[in-house]
């Protein structure tokens, strides 16, 4: 039966209440009778009391909330109507103090709700059999003793659940929670606790669940969570810095909770340090659920979870993870739920999870990540399409699986990403290496063959290039051909006479050059050595026509050696060696080898390179003496 301020005037409450309850009692259709009167700020307490006194059978649940009361009406706990009542809810009123003494007569009462009042403290002076006491959202600054005076007996021996959340507690220690032999659930959320002292909760032998969130701790002492019975620990949203070793001992913090099966560290600061995390989680061999939601993790060291062999549920939602080592989930064979929602994961591939892990999972959440829809993600896309439709359940798929990169795929659903295997076939880097080496090899072969076939032309090009370079630099000429009777003295062997007389002389003399050759210009009756000495002085330059026969001729060798003095006095430009025929190595005498190494020479060519040959010869004769040395 529910009466509220939206129903009727207070003057009619007693009549209606009596009639409804009477009908209920007579027809026996209401085994679990409940009365709720909420939001009645102008309720006439007298009418309400008269209605209670007229009921012969007690109510099992009564809710008298948000009525603006500052004092609990005395008749509520003394009326025989409530003798069998199981629950009393007096929340959202304005009580400033309260004593449990009034409920001692209610032997069947199991739950008392005094939440959202203005209680600063509450008084316990007699033993009561209540099991659940709800005191959250008050202004409680201290707790009364739960121990009977001068003994270890408890005022609340059957109390199993105590809710002290959202109060003003700033300090707690183990003395506050003594004499609570049956307490299983303790809620201390949203208080003002800053330090957790040693063995604070160890005095409660049946404590199974501890909620101590949103307190902003600055220090957790050693053995603070010590409890041989604790199975569920909620210490999230305290923004505790587990990366500051001055505030806690990672080796001790969970070492004394051997039965801990659930741990919630939501909104904490966890380091990406293997040593610290391993020490924290190492003792938790019985842990089945771990919540690391929004713990500011950028990276999780590999093997940090390997001691958690019993873990079934792992939440890593809301961190800054981009990837992880493939050994992170190794040996976690009991894991059935994995939540990686809301990180910065861009790539999931075959090595992201150990073999068989995805087949063992029942639920996997990878939604709201920053997926890069490139060919690297093709394995994950194929896995989604081909996996068992029921195992694992892919939470929030497909709506929250969205491509972020590249730009052209931005906001496209992952299920609509359809690359082909051909377009995603990776290019083998060995192919690139092979092509590069093959190209380099071919290029080297071409260069070698070109140099072998055209070495003479190359030398001539080099000779002309350097010759023109020297001309452009404008070096001062020491002397010129005008100072001599002949442009050049020609040294050649008799075996090459035909080419010299029929081709070489006519070609150059037609170009205007005057050449000195011994069969035509030497004086009759004078020795050869004297003629050579005389006519060398009349010639501006010396042209040496070289071949195998030239190298074998002793006379030619003498002429070459004799003319070396000119080269030493006037520089190498006084000589113009012409290689008419290649000299075999066995005929290569030392003077010729020295000449070829120190003086640019022109190689005779026929066919394609012939014009270039004659051009090099002509420019070699015209080149002034005294220029800096030129090497080909």
From TrEMBL:
GO terms for biological process: signal transduction. Residues 1-27 form the signal peptide. Keywords: Glycoprotein, Leucine-rich repeat, Membrane, Receptor, Repeat, Signal, Transmembrane, Transmembrane helix. It is found in: Membrane. It is a single-pass type I membrane protein. GO terms for molecular function: signaling receptor activity. The chain crosses the membrane at residues 430-452. The keyword Membrane applies. GO terms for cellular component: plasma membrane. Belongs to the Toll-like receptor family. PANTHER family: MSTPROX-RELATED, TOLL-LIKE RECEPTOR. This is TIR domain-containing protein. It comes from Mytilus edulis.
């Amino acid at each position: 039966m529910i009466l509220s301020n939206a129903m009727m005037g207070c003057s009619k409450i007693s009549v209606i209440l009596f009639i409804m309850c009477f009908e209920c009692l007579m027809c026996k259709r209401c085994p679990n009778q409940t009365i709720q009167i909420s939001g009645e700020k102008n309720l006439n307490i007298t009418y309400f009391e008269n209605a209670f006194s007229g009921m012969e059978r007690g109510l099992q649940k009564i809710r008298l909330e948000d009525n603006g009361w500052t004092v609990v009406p005395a008749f509520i706990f003394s009326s025989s109507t409530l003798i069998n009542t199981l629950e009393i809810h007096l929340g959202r009123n304005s009580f400033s103090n309260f004593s449990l003494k009034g409920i001692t007569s209610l032997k069947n009462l199991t739950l008392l709700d005094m939440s959202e009042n203005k209680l600063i403290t509450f008084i316990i002076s007699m033993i009561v059999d209540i099991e659940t006491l709800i005191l959250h959202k008050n202004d409680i600054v201290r707790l009364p003793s739960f121990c009977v005076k001068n003994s270890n007996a408890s005022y609340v021996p059957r109390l199993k659940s105590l809710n002290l959340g959202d109060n003003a507690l700033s300090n707690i220690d183990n003395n506050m929670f003594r004499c609570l032999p049956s307490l299983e659930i303790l809620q201390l959320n949203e208080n003002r606790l800053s330090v957790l002292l040693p063995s604070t909760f160890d005095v409660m032998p049946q404590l199974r669940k501890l909620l101590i969130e949103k307190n902003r701790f600055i220090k957790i002492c050693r053995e603070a969570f010590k409890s041989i019975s604790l199975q569920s620990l909620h210490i999230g949203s305290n923004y505790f810095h587990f990366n500051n070793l001055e505030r806690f001992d990672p080796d001790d913090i969970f070492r004394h909770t051997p039965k801990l099966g659930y741990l919630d560290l939501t909104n904490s600061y966890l380091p990406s340090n293997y040593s610290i995390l391993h020490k924290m989680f190492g003792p938790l061999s019985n842990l089945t659920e771990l919540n690391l939601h929004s713990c500011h993790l950028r990276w999780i060291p590999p093997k940090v979870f390997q001691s958690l062999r019993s873990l079934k549920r792992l939440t890593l939602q809301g961190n800054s993870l981009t990837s992880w080592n493939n050994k992170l989930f190794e040996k976690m064979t009991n894991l059935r739920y994995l939540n990686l929602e809301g990180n910065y994961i861009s790539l999931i591939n075959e090595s992201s999870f150990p073999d068989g892990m995805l087949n063992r999972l029942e639920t996997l959440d990878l939604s709201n990540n920053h997926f890069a829809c490139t060919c690297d993600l093709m394995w994950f896309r194929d896995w989604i399409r081909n996996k068992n439709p029921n195992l694992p359940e892919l939470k929030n798929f497909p709506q929250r699986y969205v491509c972020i990169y590249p730009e052209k795929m931005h906001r496209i659903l992952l299920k609509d990403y359809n690359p082909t295997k051909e377009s995603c076939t990776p290019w083998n880097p060995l192919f690139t290496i092979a092509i590069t080496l093959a190209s380099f090899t071919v290029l080297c072969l071409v260069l070698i063959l070109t140099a072998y076939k055209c070495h003479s032309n190359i030398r001539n090009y080099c000779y002309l290039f350097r010759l023109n370079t020297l001309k452009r630099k404008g070096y001062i000429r020491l002397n010129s051909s005008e100072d001599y009777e002949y442009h050049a003295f020609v040294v050649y062997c008799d075996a090459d006479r035909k080419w010299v007389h029929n081709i070489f002389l006519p070609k150059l003399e037609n170009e205007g050059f005057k050449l000195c050759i011994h069969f035509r210009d030497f004086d009759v009756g004078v020795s050869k050595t004297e003629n050579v000495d005389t006519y060398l002085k009349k010639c501006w330059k010396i042209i040496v026509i070289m071949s195998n026969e030239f190298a074998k001729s002793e006379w030619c060798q003498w002429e070459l050696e004799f003319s070396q003095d000119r080269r030493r006095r006037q520089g190498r430009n006084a000589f113009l060696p012409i290689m008419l025929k290649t000299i075999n190595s066995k005929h290569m005498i030392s003077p010729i080898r020295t000449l070829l190494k120190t003086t640019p020479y022109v190689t005779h060519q026929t066919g394609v390179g012939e014009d270039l040959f004659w051009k090099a010869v002509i420019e070699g004769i015209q080149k002034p003496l005294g220029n800096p040395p030129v090497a080909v």
